[in-house]
Every structure is written in C-alpha cells, then in structure tokens.
Amino acid sequence: MSRLFVRYKFIGLCFVLGMTACGGSSSNGVNNEEVVVTPEPEEPEESSGECVNQLYDIVLATDDGSSDPSYLPDNTIDNLTTPDSRWSSEGTGKELLLDMGSTNTLGSLKIKWHDGAERQASFEVETSVDNIIWEPVLDDGISSGKHSGFELVNLTESEARYIKIIGLGNSENDWNSIVEVEAHSCEGADGQIVAAFPNELGIELIDWYLSVPTDDDDSGTSDSISETDLAAGYTNSEYFYASADGGIVMRSPSYGFKTSTNTNYVRVELREMLRRGNTSISTQGVNKNNWVFGSVSNSAQADAGGVDGELNVTLAVNNVTTTGEDYQIGRLVIGQIHANDDEPIRLYYRKLPGNDKGSIYFAHEPRVSGSDEVYVEMIGSRSNSASNPSDGISLDELFSYKINVVANLLTVTISREGKEDVVSSLDMSNSLFDEDDQYQYFKVGVYHLNNSSNTDEYAQATFYEIRNSHTGYADSE
Q: What is the pTM of this model?
C-alpha cells in the first residue's frame, strides 16, 4: 500500500499528514505553503491465487427446435429443479445453446441431469464469444450417475458469451435431458460440490434409508432413497451431500414434499434399516428390520433385529430459521427413536434469532391415552423467549449426542470437547413401549419443525459420525 505525504495550508497552524516537516513560514507566523503531495512508490500487492467465484445469469436458452415440446430449452434456466422442468432432446449430437448476454470468464458449470442418480449422461461443451467461432472446453464428458442434484463440470477456462452443451445420449438410451444449468467463473464453482460422495466418509449408510423433500416418482409424498442406493453413493447437492471437511450435509427447506399426508413438516432424515438392503423383510413390524426394548417378552426379542439400542452421533448445526411463528423459529429435531406411531424421544436443537447460542432438549411421547408429552431441558431453555444460554451450542460448533435405551430406561448424553458431559435419564416404564407389538428404529438428520418461515429459509446440519448398535444385532458399530 502506498502512503501520501501531504502538507496542508492553515492560518496560524501547520497540519502535517505523514512525517514531512512544515517550512516556509512568514515572519508573522502564517504558513503560506501550498499543498504538496509526494507519493511513495507503490508496492505490488501479492495475489492470493484464489479464484473469487461469480455466478453468471443465463439470459436465453435455445436448441435446434427438435426437442420434446413438453421439455423446452427455457426449462434449464427457470430456477426450477423438478423433473418436469427440463430440456429433453433425442439423438446424438443434440445441442443446448446458452447465452449469458455478455462475455465472461467461464471456469465451470453446475448441471442437474434428469435421472442423474440412475444413469450417466455423455456430452461435450464448447464456448464462443460471437456464436460463430467455437472453442472446445470439455471433450468426452460423462456424468457420475450418482448425483440427484447439481453436478460440478469443470471446464478449460475460456472467455465466453455462449455455451454449447452437446448431448451424446446416456447409459440407457439416446435422450439428452437437463433439468437446470448454472454458469460459474471459477473451476470448482462455488465450492459447495466436492469430489467425495457421502458413502465414502466412514458412515455406514447400508443401515439407513433417506427421505428428501422431492417427488421424482410422482407419488405425492417425499422420495425415499433406499439403503442400497445410499451405500452405492447417492448424493443430492440440494439436500444430502459430502462437505469439504468430511461430513454429510443434510439441508431441509421449510417447504417441500413430506413423508406422508399426516405430517406437517419437511425433513431430510435417515431412517434406521437393520435389514441392510434385504427387501424381503418388511420395513414395519417386529421383525429383523427393527428393534425392541429389553422389557418385552423373550419371543418378541427373538423376532426382532435387535434388543435395546444406542445411537452415537457427532454433528454441527449450520443454519436455522429466523422467521415464522414464535414457537417454530429456530428449531429442528436432530435425532429420534420412533415406534409404531409414537416417539419415545425427539432430540431438539433450537437457537433464537437474538441469541448466539442454541439450546438442547428432548421430548418423550408416552402411549398412554390422554397423557401429555414430557419435555426435558438439557442445555438452555426451549422457551419461545429464551435468553442466550450461557453454556449453549453455537451454529457450526461441533458436539456429540448419545441416545441409549436399556429396557425402559432412556439416557441422553451431550458431549463437547473441553466440557463436562450433560446427562439426562427418563424412566419409560409407564409409557407402554414395552408391549410385544411395539417396534423401534432410530432416526438421524434434520426434521425441520418450521412451516411458517420465509420461503427461502432452511435448516442445515453436518454429520461426522453416525453409529447404531443393538444387543443381538451382528452389524452393530
């Protein structure tokens, strides 16, 4: 940075900026010297070498007119990521032409392929400044076949106004189908898509299936991703993906498709599946997919996939809502035990907008007719006007929880590095979960309990460890 040495003229006062002395005063003490500016040589600033990404507007999308009339080029730039809003054209060499409206430095694209988690698309990319002379920036491109959301496509950097994506069919047929395209200045785009997949991070996903708030199968409810698909590498850049620091991000909007018509809230959540991909075993019932309390009969224990249970999770909550009904703001469920119809535990994190730390508490839902839920506050308060909890948990702060059930005793432990564990226990003897028809399963993720916030708000957490274990379950961790 350069420094300017400036001499100012004041009546009766010499005001000096920098280290230059005043001079030239008249005999009456009045300084008549004019302003003199002497710059020091400019030192060159060192470049960090990091690209500052810019997302470019795409103002127009066209093709040769042979696309399916129901799936036109404009769909790829309408900011809608539903399967029906896509471009589809059959045949090798079909071209999607995108116009950014001005010439920019282009380093990458983010593309959401139709059926991107089921099949691989083959394609090439060329760019142009004048729509006449074209420069190849990607040859022999092929999508992963694992991304349900956006997939990163790095390009040879070029100056471009026009982008041409040349479709070469997919691994199943000759259709070229793209849901949405983003253009970015940097290689790596905005850095939100990393090379790793969730199944590569040390969390055993064959034990779980996933709910995401999309409806790609037109069922009217949210999509369920099977345990085998999760274990094979399923990822979705909008809802379920690997983070740069080695965790699994689960991100739930306030609005979207729900798991059933009976629930009010959206979720991105894992459901425990002890069957581990064996679809001959039903998801429901006292069977080898679910577990039971050690207080049920011996015959029910023998029928179940495990007895009693422990869930160990390490995570950081990254974002919560700040608007909506006062009782919904800033709250989400990060872990559960679910029974047939009721929930022995829902573990909450909640941070209010005026606080820089969040609270932890849990709810227990007895099966006794007419009984109320029991709430246990562990860190801070669940109040809608709670003050900032002095020992609370901040956004992005790493912590762990353990949910343990032995017979009818529920124990919850919250752990943080450098702090004493916070432990709470609850006797469930009178809650009727020890009846022989009651089966249990763990749930982990972001169950987003706010359906009144601004539409652009969301809840997000990153999970670094998920381990489940049960007596008699061979694959306990």
A: 0.85
